[in-house]
Predict the structure.
Amino acid sequence: MTLIDSDPDTGLAPLEFTVNRNLQAKSAAEREQILANPGFGTSFTDHMVDICWSVGGGWHRPRVQPYGPLTLDPAAAVLHYGQEIFEGIKAYRHADGSIHTFRPDQNGRRLQRSARRLALPELPVSYFIQSLRELIAVDAAWVPSGDDQSLYLRPFMFAKEAFLGVRPAHKVGYYVIASPAGAYFKGGVQPVSIWLSEDYARAGKGGTGAAKTGGNYAASLLPQSEAYENECDQVVFLDQDRNVEELGGMNVVFVYKDGTIVTPQSDSILEGITRDSILQLAADRGHKVEGRAVSFDEWRQGVASGDIVEVFACGTAAVVTPIGVLKGKDFLDEQPTGSLALSLREELTDIQYGRREDKHNWLVRLDG
Ligand code: PLP
Ligand code: COI
């Protein structure tokens, strides 16, 4: 796997944000009650970032404003043609109270790649990182300090021009909202069960699979419901050649008995930053790591023969979660679980929470 490189637009002057404080911000007591048991994606902080873009004006009117509903023209292009992209990144509180995020340059660059594919404007990476800092500057108290807790940041961008012609919109909004987060799966790091989607694909060759765009997730909802009906936690997608792609919201990683770590790689899979980081940590330990096509048969046969000794899912929301069961219409394969997934998870989270040396300089401080 090639490791992705660093911020291309250092030197750009920062934006000058206007900050409108939320006069109806939650009280400290209300906030603490939410932070005691945040769940995932259900509560939001007091503020949000809002930056406009237009063909003539570029990026303008950068604001931090009270969290609240957006006013949209019913003809806004996003509502009709789905021109939208987003990111997911977390802010972690360290034991000394400071707040850090993890490899934000990579999320910023991925947002640019997604923008290119969806014909949206590319937000400079330095503006992306600044937008996270501006939100943390007013909502720092929302970064929880409990075990495995974080503030999940959700930057997103969409076409807001009122126009029904099918072409890239001339007016776009970029926003960042934030949501305190605990474990993504109810069971924490217990192994999850995966349903094989046989009737539905998530992405196709030349499609939008590698972009983080709402339509990919919309396409995953029906097969995800099928997974729930079959008592599985998540759904796995194959491509047209029956190679393994990824889960609805996570990448997949296989561990082989000789210690090699393999993750499916193709133009239609989202390039996960958690996956990239886990593979780097494994390579640092001396594991051979490979990004290549993995056929579904290789997965099943590898598990049956004992060549594959662990399978796990990874992503920002779910961190690293072992896969315990793979289920399809006419089979159920127990998956081998070992200790590598959890040990890599521990190493990664130790870095993110400042408990271990950050040898790759992945952390970026967001407060102060
Ligand atoms: N694949 C999909 C479809 C995702 O939504 C995510 C989550 O963002 C990932 C993979 C993992 O990406 P990352 O590790 O950058 O969060
Ligand atoms: C993330 O991990 O950031 C994602 O976007 C995945 C989503 C299913 C919450």
Notes: The first strand starts at residue 18 and ends at 19. The chain has two domains: 18-183, 192-348.
